[in-house]
Amino acid sequence: MQIETITTKPYQDQNPGTSGLRKKVKVFQQTGYLENFVQSIFDSLEETQGKVLVLGGDGRYFNRVAIQIIIKMAAANGFEELIIGQGGLLSTPAASHIIRKYQADGGLILSASHNPGGPDEDFGIKYNVNNGGPAPEKFTQAVFQRSQVIDQYKTADIPDIDLDNIGIAQFEALKVTIIDPVTDYAELLETIFDFKVLKQSISSGYITLLFDAMSAITGPYAKRILVDILGAPADSVINAEPLEDFGGHHPDPNLAHAHELAERMFSDNAPVFGAASDGDGDRNMITGSNIFVTPSDSLAIMAANAHLIPAYKAGLSGVARSMPTSQAVDRVAASYKIPCYETPTGWKFFGNLLDAGKITLCGEESFGTGSTHVREKDGLWAVLFWLNLIAVKRQTVADIVQEHWQKFGRDIYCRHDYEAIETPIANGIVDHLRAQLPTLPGQVFGEYLVSYADEFCYEDSIDGSISKNQGIRVGFENGSRIVFRLSGTGTVGATLRIYIERFEADPEKHNQEAQTALAFLIELAEQLCEVKQRTGRSEPNVIT
Ligand code: VG1
Ligand code: CO
After folding, report:
1. Which fold is adopted by the domain 3-181?
2. What is 185-408's CATH number, 3.30.450.40, 3.40.120.10, 3.40.50.2300, 3.40.30.10?
3. Mapping DSSP to helix (H, G, I), strand (E, B) and coil, where does residue 497 land?
4. Which of ligand 1's atoms lies nearest the C-alpha of 488?
5. Would the N or C end of the chain have less CB density within 10 A of its end CB?
């Protein structure tokens, strides 16, 4: 094959955020933009010759084009094999599993996750390392630095690959293997959960369910696993066809965006269980008949009941949560006498703890939970976890949640997102918050005494790496917290996220509506950050 070296000019904005590089499709379509970033990744690897790379994406607009470009570049850079999901599709957790199962050297996952897709919307790309997890910050920073000086990339003169037929093609030294995107992943889940009990509970009608794939990647996965294998009726999976523009919606599993599911779950004839996943299949929203489970509670409930799931019956070595996730799981860990780690936002920070066997389960408030089975958060895994719990506990979702609160108390929690704020205003808000940190401790607001106010800095206990500026925390003596941070996944302006929590031990007060129960802290958060005042907005774009 003929290898061409193409001269290019660096772009200055290729700094990967919380989860890879995410930009508007139009940005990625600029001459050399995708190529520069991919070559910067290849240049940052110790070696590309003879290596095996997994490649796939969530099927959004530009996925197929990007895959053909990357195949030619991988060929020119000396990779030995590419393992690609049929149609260019792989959910993020499935990609993670395939890297691990086939002992690939890494993978490129093409997704902007929960961000909308289409010619005027978002695209994204990230590199995962050979443990199946997102590359650590050290690597993403090396890629960014390389992207700022890159002056050439390599591509090979080979024809476009047929992505739609399973099989193997050889282009001189490069082998391209097209695999079924679902089979390996479905087999993995079967080793974790009790499929026999699940089948029985579904066929007997004890469990009725509704899964909203949000016109994104989990459609084929959910149809195969929930319908074909576990026997749920075909109409249990809605919006099951992956569309390049996700039907024009945000493939973001929360009550605001998964509205079709939400309507059905909060109706008179709601199924026992309802769930949704996001664009790339790593998030999950859990609901039951007339109840929504906050992701932080879901993580705690899963940790508390994990011994009921075959793969975790020996118990958990430890758990971890991202810093802004509520402290509900900490209470479970304390009661079970297992360690609980607090990491910065983003799955890449769990990788070392999982690899070292320090934790078995981990999760984030942003609808993400996962375990040692892969190195990404995993939407359908969380769905099967809950279904398995319902099947063996013989309880409704509402009863499981109530029982948990009775035992551990409730961490009442919410997150307010102010999206697409002009960047200078957002930076002004952060500066203003920072300036208050030294004087906040000791101050009293109503019944809340500030016990600490700081900027979260994480030291990885395995490799000693330090990650600074991971969010501003205001903690109160009674355990309540307000956390502020700027999103690292948005593509327009800046998004401010405000996370608010308060512990409620009294079972009589467990069934309050979160916004009402947290009203004082919500107001205090505004007083501290002045987002409404500075942006002229009256409310957040999304409340979860
Ligand atoms: C958000 C979430 C974070 C999650 C990240 C990637 O990041 O808050 O918890 O790990 O998205 O998830 P940020 O920086 O926007 O707050 V996904 O499903 O978008 O890959
Ligand atoms: Co995602």
Report:
1. Alpha-D-Glucose-1,6-Bisphosphate; Chain A, domain 3 (3.40.120)
2. 3.40.120.10
3. strand
4. 14
5. N
Distance CA 227, CA 306 (A): 24
Stated length of the chain: 544
pLDDT tens for 498-534 read 999 999 998 999 989 999 999 999 999 999 999 999 9
Mutate to test the pocket of ligand 1, among 128, 284, 345, 467 (most ligand atoms within 8 A of CB): 345
Q: By the 8 A CB rule, do 318 and 330 touch?
A: no
Does 491 have pLDDT greater than 90?
no
Tell me how many helices (H) and strands (E) the chain has: 18, 27
With a 6 Å cutoff on the Cβ, whether 347 touches ligand 1 is yes
Residue limits of CATH 3.40.120.10 in the chain: 3-181, 185-408
Does the predicted TM-score (pTM) go above 0.85? yes
- Determine whether the shortest distance from the Cβ of 366 to ligand 1 is under 6 A: yes
Q: Residue 93 C-alpha to ligand 2 middle, in angstroms?
A: 9
Residues classed as catalytic = 113
Distance 18 CA to ligand 1 centre (A): 6
Q: How many CB atoms lie within 10 A of CB 501?
A: 25
Residues spanned by CATH 3.30.310.50 within the chain? 410-543
For 78-91, how does the pLDDT look when each residue is reduced to its tens digit (9 = 90+)?
Answer: 999 999 999 999 99
Q: Is 500 left (phi over 0), alpha (psi -120 to 50) or beta?
A: beta
497 Cβ below 6 A of ligand 1: yes
The fold for domain 410-543 equals TATA-Binding Protein (3.30.310)
